[in-house]
Amino acid sequence: MEQETIIEAGGAPGQRGPIDHKRRQQILQAADEHFRLYGYRKTTLADIAKAINLSTPYLYKFFDSKQALGEAICSQCLNRALAEVEELVAAVKSPVDKLRRVFTGLESKGWGFLNDERKIHDMVLVSFEERWGSLARFKDARFQLIRRIIVQGRESGDFERKTPLEETCGAISNMTDLFFHPMLLEQAGKSLEDEALAVANVAIRSLTA
Amino acid sequence: MEQETIIEAGGAPGQRGPIDHKRRQQILQAADEHFRLYGYRKTTLADIAKAINLSTPYLYKFFDSKQALGEAICSQCLNRALAEVEELVAAVKSPVDKLRRVFTGLESKGWGFLNDERKIHDMVLVSFEERWGSLARFKDARFQLIRRIIVQGRESGDFERKTPLEETCGAISNMTDLFFHPMLLEQAGKSLEDEALAVANVAIRSLTA
Fold first, then answer.
1. Which spans are transmembrane here (chains A, B) (predicted)?
2. Which among A168, A175, A205 has the least Cβ separation from residue B209?
3. ipTM > 0.85 (yes/no)
4. What DSSP character marks residue B159?
5. Which CATH class is domain A74-207?
């Protein structure tokens, strides 16, 4: 394989070459289809290249590993899930209701992956196991969503203002993992909506103290 | 293998035969040694039987499967960990400090398994994956410990009394899983003491509201 300088494409690690290259979209679409159909683990870069009549070395011009492609697809899935949670959050006014919807919304999305998009669930699980960058970016976006809600609640007087903001947001963000982490949902083997509501109530009471 | 009526020994499922039989202790000790040395997955009932000059069928008189032995050893380890956390809890007076120590104590024990007793960590992980009875009993004991602290705090006036007790205790008990679940500690790859303290603070603020 020809060695090239890796160019960061859109800030995503492991991606290289021109950002707006049509080929990139074509590769991403083929990867998405393969990961959904056969799973991340069972798909090779050669499978993806072959599906769109490209050579594997040519594919390396855009993604320097299968993981880089996995991270790109995983980011798309996690971003979509979070965007749906943000819609649920935007549909209610009070910061209390918004925060509750972060918990139940994430639980519902995680449970949806497990039940309706099992191969995506498995890939998200790999991203947790191998601490992919896509996961870190998702966790950061989730933290920012929770932070915006808490700041809004502090400004509106719904939430207290004396506890350290970053620590509180980080802790509450971690707490949502109990209902979104693919392994925990798998081990529970059932929807954790009630548990998510109960933990959301603890978070909410801590803020309205 | 001779079929006998299964007698519940000490209420532990999968155990049979007379409770106080010396053989049972001998088998448990050999199992403990094997699981610690070679790991639960790699040990067979035949290995354990051979180590103490028993036949495998004879061993079945006491434990009806490897999992029954695994659950017995796992219970011992989890009970010991929880007993150590209870000691830490008993050493401080205020319900706030006690609750904080449940979080940091469990984190420390979980981290201890991962770092100092790796094979035990792996077995506890199996118990989470396969939802062993030993895990359910541990979770119940953890819930009861947290419930005792919260009831004490309600009686002393340190904690509020208006929220539903069982729901709150269940939620806070679940929250400790973030720092005790062997898979989460493994994926974190570092001590989660600071995170445990931050989440404990959320729990404590929710109770002092």
1. none
2. A205
3. yes
4. S
5. mainly alpha
Chain B from 88 to 147: CB within 8 A of any A CB = 128-129, 131
Q: Would you state the CATH architecture of domain A1-64?
A: Orthogonal Bundle (1.10)
Cα A57 to Cα A1: distance, rounded to the nearest angstrom:
6
| Per-residue pLDDT, A12 | 64
How far apart are alpha carbons A173 and A194 in whole angstroms?
A: 18
8 A C-beta contact, residue A75 and residue A158: no
Distance CA B160, CA A126 (A): 42
The helix/strand/coil state of A131 is coil
The pLDDT tens digits of the residues spanning B87-109 come to 999 999 999 999 999 999 999 99
Beta-bridged to residue A9, according to DSSP, are A12
- CB–CB of B10/B19 below 8 Å? yes
Q: For helices A22-38 and A118-129, give the axis angle rounded to 10 degrees.
A: 100
Domain ranges of chain A: 1-64, 74-207
A5 interfacial to chain B (CB closer than 8 Å) = no
From CA A98, how far away is CA A78, in angstroms rounded?
A: 19
Q: Nearest Cα to A28, choosing from A57, A56, A1, A52?
A: A52
